[in-house]
Amino acid sequence: MSIETDTREVKAMTSLKDIAQVCGVSVATVSKALNNHSDVSEARREQIKSKARELGYFPNQAARALKTRSTMDIGVLFADAHNSGLTHPYFSQVLEGLKIRTEERGYDLTFIGIKSKRNKMTFLEHCVYRNVDGVVVACVDFNQPEVLELVRSRLPVVTIDHVMDDCATISSNNVEGMTRLTQYVLSKGHRKVAYIHGRPSSTTNERMVGFFRAMEEKGIDPPEAYIREIPYLDDEAAYDMTLELLALEDRPTCIMYPDDYCCIGGINAIRDMGLSVPEDVSVTGYDGVPIARVVSPKITTYQQNMLEIGQTAADKVIELIERPRTAIKNNTVIGGTLFEGGSVGTIK
Amino acid sequence: MSIETDTREVKAMTSLKDIAQVCGVSVATVSKALNNHSDVSEARREQIKSKARELGYFPNQAARALKTRSTMDIGVLFADAHNSGLTHPYFSQVLEGLKIRTEERGYDLTFIGIKSKRNKMTFLEHCVYRNVDGVVVACVDFNQPEVLELVRSRLPVVTIDHVMDDCATISSNNVEGMTRLTQYVLSKGHRKVAYIHGRPSSTTNERMVGFFRAMEEKGIDPPEAYIREIPYLDDEAAYDMTLELLALEDRPTCIMYPDDYCCIGGINAIRDMGLSVPEDVSVTGYDGVPIARVVSPKITTYQQNMLEIGQTAADKVIELIERPRTAIKNNTVIGGTLFEGGSVGTIK
DNA sequence: TTGAGTTACGAAAACGATTTCGGACGTGAA
DNA sequence: TTCACGTCCGAAATCGTTTTCGTAACTCAA
Lengths: 348, 348
Prior knowledge:
The structure is a homodimer. Chain A is an alpha/beta fold. Chain A has helices at residues 16-23, 27-34, 42-55, 61-68, 91-104, 123-130, 145-152, 174-187, 202-217, 235-246, 260-272, 306-322; strands spanning 2-3, 73-78, 108-111, 134-138, 157-160, 168-172, 193-197, 227-229, 254-256, 282-284, 301-303, 328-329, 331-334, 337-339. Chain A has a 6-stranded parallel sheet with strand order 3-2-4-5-6-13, covered by helices on one side. In chain A, helix 1 (16-23) packs across helix 2, helix 8 runs parallel beside helix 9 (202-217) and helix 10 crosses helix 11. Chain A starts with a strand and ends in a 9-residue tail after the last strand. Chains A and B meet through strand 1, helix 4, helix 5, strand 3 and helix 6 of A and strand 1, helix 4, helix 5, strand 3 and helix 6 of B. Strand 1 of chain A pairs antiparallel with strand 12 of chain B. The structure holds a DNA duplex.
């Protein structure tokens, strides 16, 4: 425990002026040399660049931003509906992908948070205030007026998993993913398949489409009682709902859950009833989070490629930033892979 | 799929000049009014403030930063040794805490990443370049020269879980936590307690101290074969190590793991040997991540208060920023709570 | 009336970078 | 020699904000 003494080295910012001084040229020339403008001789450019390196020069972002309106900074907006914050098992990986790719390409990442108390600004105002070059939006309530304002602004915006007009989107292939997962279950001989889906959203809708598509292919029309709804990531709700399903007269042989966490909750319910997975009841998850491979049996799930979703979102927003006229605002779908764990048994 | 047409509304930044214009005063007066300087009349101040609100004015951070050297931006440096990136179950919650508190206090959070290829700068250079007001450092290799350079700089730095000279630290109470967890195990009658700890680090060392302290209190000296080491978060290593421990002549009745993930790996090994938890073998985790409460039986673990660690780190770095002379650089320890799951049985 | 002391405001410099424009100089052709 | 042209560089404006300093106007006591 010691009082701050402030005797330590100051890492002084070396400016263009410093370089100009030692090179005996003007600031303008230094700037042009470092930015590879054509009206500076090759010899000068080399001299200046080597001096700059030597002095440990890095452009002051604040000054540059003031003049050029470019900050090399990308905002990330994330407000979870599940109260899990950044620990959101899906989003944290998307964020990691974003971080990796933006860093690779020389951009930084800044959170555009929920407005603070003192100076409450909207998301867009926050972006303008911070001069971010673009924004990636995920997990928010896309009907919120503030989000609409942001998406409709001139700012380059990329959304994750939610298609909006005139705005680029990176999304997981929910239809195909759920189709393939269901097809896998059916290929194991299951015919009495229950599906507990998440709360309504574009993601949920797509997965429903995938589920029913696969079922229809086999000519199966599941009874209404087999289709249920719970919140995402709510293992307790999954537990209760599982008990309900297993109490049915004609009990399903396989239960499909909205995500891997819910699936674990379901497994607990099944075991607490004295049944076992997958011998008595089969289950599937969704997402393919790390924990799905750790529990026993490993959960059969559709593994979304969240890292790639994040990376692609970064590429997309940077493309919109750097080539505003040519960049196309479309929907990029990222494929995943079926992970065959041990939670789905065979029905003879 | 449509070509960007750029017909959308521009959210024009309203500047001090705009306000000055409509109020018929100078820019200087507007600035002073908004910053509550004393040399502007009350009437003027009100007029200017209301106009500013009306026009949706927010100060341009870039311009302000250029002049004042304050960006209201805090850097967060995080490089995981476990390759789990932001999905790191521990860190993602710390980050969430950081995010919540910094937002509350009007600061933003920017990642200070690993240097990118094109312009490779050190962490400190990155901070200087970005003009962050302070940095929070977590999970990095604290022996790295770059990290040392950063910590020793004049920049306000707060580290998480690693005490360094002349630098504020927020850490979990590892000694007490492990002591209490071990005491709990012993109180259940266990005497043959194995401890699989993580790779050496200050955190690991503290927990070892806690473990042996509790054991000594009971006069127990565990055999060397009971003390093992694996990487953190490596459930497969935990699986293998558990098999080894259970193959011992004199098998332990309880195995303590370095974290909850490893504990789950251990549970799998125990079950695969035809034994059950906690009837045949008891287990404990560490951290208290959400999944510990989802698996069955729930894992008895020491729940670190990671959200609060993050929030406290934010408070600390902001204190160092706003009161550089008076702020004290010390080590703040955040307590956790014992979570009594069902993974530890009673030995009669 | 005079002088000192407030009060309320504006002019201007500064932060560090980019960019426009113009000028000095050298080269080659007529 | 002269003129047109290209090459290389610098002066100065600019981005939006903060801050110092100067000053006009007003108050009040002597």
